[in-house]
Amino acid sequence: CWVGNLGKTCTHAIVYAQLYVPDDTYVGLSAFLVPIRDERTLLAFPGVTVGDLGEKVGLNGIDNGFVMFNNYRIPKDNLLSKTGDIDEQGNYSSPIKDSRKRLGASLGALSAGRVNICNLANVALGKAITIATRYSAARKQFGPDETSEEWAVIEYQSQQYRLFPHLATAYAIHVFSMWLGIENVEMTKRSFMGEDTSSVGMEIHAVSSAGKPTCTWAARDGIQECREACGGHGYLKSTGLGDLRNDNDANCTYEGENNTLIQQASNWLVGLKRGKANFEEVSPLKTVAFLKDMDQILKQKAEEKNAKEVACPHSLLKALNWLVAYQLDVTVKRVEDLKRQGLDGFETRNNMQVFNAQTLSIVYAQRTIYAVFYNFVMNLPQSNEKNALLKLLSMYGCHMVTKNAAIFYQGGYFRQNSQLELYQQAILDLLPILKNEAISLVDAIAPPDFILNSPLGMSDGNVYLHLQRAVMSAPGVFERPDWWREVTYKDYIPKARM
């Protein structure tokens, strides 16, 4: 159910089914290449019931469908045999003896889909922030007094605060998704060459399992804020913001519903800590290598004295390192407490999610996104572009710290009320600086106008001209509705006799 292209068009599908050998021994869930439709007629084969799920909230260019099989036979050769195969005598063999690990190896390919969704979220958020920023620079409203020229709404601090953290997030996710995609391709190439990629595979699985929900939630929140920041005009379908919101909404569900998928990352992190793993050895991508110094990190406190110091990229990385270390520590303690209460593994995982494991996965993803962005920016040669990216890096880091302020106080990293105020002041200091760069920054990530296709977000800034054209050219804009007779006064209706 819900498979893309299954509804109307696909002729073959990869089907995961329970595999039994002739002696009725169950050997685990396995993948099969299954013909669905005749390639010449697109009619379903006998024994296959396949259909379309119907219109969706968004992404209606994809025909999602369902399929059922009734006594449908396929050749033995259609078993995908990388993780296991059956010989002519019906004997099953596999290089991986544990059926759960065997399934995990076959499902590892799904990481690529999650990696791609991180980039889809990046594209959607990038479009939305482009539209809202360009519109805010062109839209004028009010001013200091009645005799003054009206201000562009981007001049208002509140509008800047609504948009610029999401602009920084768009850049951070862009760099992160590109990095993760490259690492996944490299892992796949090494796997094809016969190299052992188990460690990097598990890390990519964890990063993508946390990154996909975090990126798509960030896009969801950013797109909604951009829609509202464009006022009533943002509610017009022609602006594209509603379509971006609806299409990204699916990203939060497919390839793993976010709240379920994200548990994979915390399971990996908790397993490493409880198993006393060497965090450097198990982390080829270095996303948890810093936790080798976890005990020392947990002793750290916020020492910054002013807004400039807290906005320092290295100081922000230190804070986010502490955040992950602390949340991992409290989650492991929660697991051990549940174990002492006699809960089994399933019940423990179920009861450690709220306030603990899910938060751990989120802050792990946020820290990883920041660290990747940090390394990218710091390795650039000195230039005006690097200076602008440093401001975005600081904005993203400060935004992540303020979002998790309660944890920083709870764990004792913040010891004074004024320490949160320093991060808030750092954000306020960055807003007017980013305002001067905002149009250039969105121009750098914006698609061409014909792809953006929004009257509010065209690169020439002629918002009202494009908006007028969009409204005036809509079908039936000046015509009466078909049902006009049903709602107009009819003088032939007899008056009541009193």
TrEMBL record:
InterPro entries: ACOX_C_alpha1, Acyl-CoA_Oxase/DH_mid-dom_sf, Acyl-CoA_oxidase, Acyl-CoA_oxidase_C, AcylCo_DH-like_C, AcylCoA_DH/oxidase_NM_dom_sf. GO terms for biological process: fatty acid beta-oxidation using acyl-CoA oxidase; lipid homeostasis. Its cofactor is FAD. Its main location: other. Pfam families: ACOX, ACOX_C_alpha1. GO terms for cellular component: peroxisome. Residues 313-487 form the Acyl-CoA oxidase C-terminal domain. The keyword Oxidoreductase applies. The keyword Transmembrane helix does not apply. Keywords: FAD, Fatty acid metabolism, Flavoprotein, Lipid metabolism, Oxidoreductase, Peroxisome. This is Putative peroxisomal acyl-coa oxidase. It comes from Haematobia irritans.
